[in-house]
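FAQ: What does the model actually see?

It sees only this:
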Amino acid sequence: MVNLIDIPFVKEISEWIWGKDDGAATKCLTSFSSPCFSQLVTKLLGVAIIGGSMLNKVPIMVNMMKNRSAAGIARNSLYGELIVYANAAMYSHLLGHPLTSYGENISLSIQNTALVVMTWNFLSKTDAPVRSNEMITTSTFFVLYCIITLSFLPSEYRYLLMSSTWPVMSYARGSQIYKTFLVKHTGNLSIITTSMSLFGSTIRILTTLKETGDMVVLSGYVLSGSLSFIMFIQYWMYLNRTTEISSKIESKKEK
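And it is asked to produce this:
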């Protein structure tokens, strides 16, 4: 009888799920216990979150393309979130965490970069375009920041990557929450994106406890989930006003 572990790719996949230490993969294949099931679910959730994250910002991009506008988008929020996602990805990468525990931060960094470029582009066609020095400074700083962090940051200071995201995230999401509060509508923001962020943070709290147990990372997800919840509430609070403004934009287009 052929053992499962001897089937091509089964060994590699099982070791990716349960690890190589103490023959955990072999034990789980021969005797599928409750801890084995728990770890399998954790891995699958991690993969699902990464897959879902690839579409997280797409609804906002679609809204911006549809309206040909960056209305309701706070640039400071985009800049701050980009640092938050990059810090989370670099921290986990440097500490050797499994990709399934942080991969969505790489995806969100790429999407947030696209949103920044789209915002700059649409604002360039308004009476308040983004100045070229802001675009150059922001781009240069971000690239150098990532290179220096990945190449030269001492291991004893890596924790600062995550702990520094708390005030940055509070400022980034707080800027968006405050702007929404002032204008009383959510503009191009999407309930799909907000809901995915809220759901993702909730699941990440569970997977982080299981995969790494890193309390620094865990506290970041708790903060992210709390701020996403406030944005979720704001969407429904200002839904009528947002719908009214969207209708006016559509009417102007038709004229």
